[in-house]
Amino acid sequence: MGRTIAFANQKGGVGKTTTCVNLAAALALQRKRVLVVDMDPQGNATVGCGIDRARVRVNAYHVLMDEVSIREAVADAPGGGFQVVPGNSDVTAAEVALMEAEGREQHLRRQLARVRDEYDYILVDCPPSLNILTVNALVAANGVLMPIQCEYYALEGLTALLNTIRRVQQNANRELVIQGLLRTMFDPRNNLANQVSAQLLQHFPKQVYNTVIPRNVRL
Question: Which of 2, 42, 201, 212 has its CA 20 to 30 A from that of 90?
Fold first, then answer.
């Protein structure tokens, strides 16, 4: 049975989608069977995987609304060696519709259960907010990976996400664990970045990854 990992942070621009897409490509190079699910209405993970979000016939919206089976929405990432359930602005409509749907937080979990044995890893890219789409991802996941930029308000935003994770663990998914905290766009010359990094290591010594993604202006 494959492991499902949600990539979540309610703050945008922290490298969440970039981490998800690059991890998918890296796992595919290791001959792992990988599925990326783009739950963000911006569709950046879809574009990052080389798929034209405007041309896909079915996407995450149709999956969440149970209009199609998840297998019908899967597309190949060109040259990536893995597969994608695309997302685009249609997913915004799913967010609205799910608010009044029965078992609204369980829709993605039910769909992924149909294909979980077909993949080694299912990576779910969440929108930059703690909405019903993110809750669906957390309910469906085994673990949550949190990319964090070491800057002002980073810990405050992390607290809100951790509270949401605890509520999901208590009410809908007792198997959910914190996969890890990934420090992204890190600049060791910045005193604030070093202070926030030190605080993360102090409060979450077992969950902060040793790997740090540096800020690379040249790249």
Answer: 2
Note the pTM of the prediction, 2 decimals: 0.94
Provide CB contacts within 8 A for 111, sequence distance 6+.
63, 64, 66, 69, 70
Structure tokens at 214: 């540096």
- pLDDT tens-digit profile of 77-105? 999 999 999 999 999 999 899 988 888 99
How many whole angstroms separate alpha carbon 62 and alpha carbon 42? 16
Burial class (CB in 10 A: 0-12, 13-18, 19+), 213: middle
State the pairing for strand pair 83-85/75-76.
antiparallel
Cβ within 8 Å of residue 74, ≥6 positions away: 35, 83, 84, 85, 115
Q: What are residue 76's DSSP bridge partners? A: 83
Rounded CA-CA distance 164/129 in Å is: 11
Q: Give how far Cα 162 sits from Cα of 70, 105, 145, 198, 211, Å.
A: 29, 17, 11, 19, 21
Which residues 6+ apart lie within 8 Å of 145 measured at CB? 5, 6, 7, 8, 19, 179, 180, 182
Find the helix packing angle between 132-140 and 154-171, rounded to 10°. Answer: 60
Q: How many CB atoms lie within 10 A of CB 121?
A: 18
User: 3-state class of 123 per DSSP?
Assistant: strand
Helix ranges (DSSP H) in the chain? 16-29, 44-48, 60-64, 70-73, 90-98, 107-113, 132-140, 154-171, 191-203
pLDDT digit string, tens, across residues 135-157: 999 999 999 999 999 888 888 88
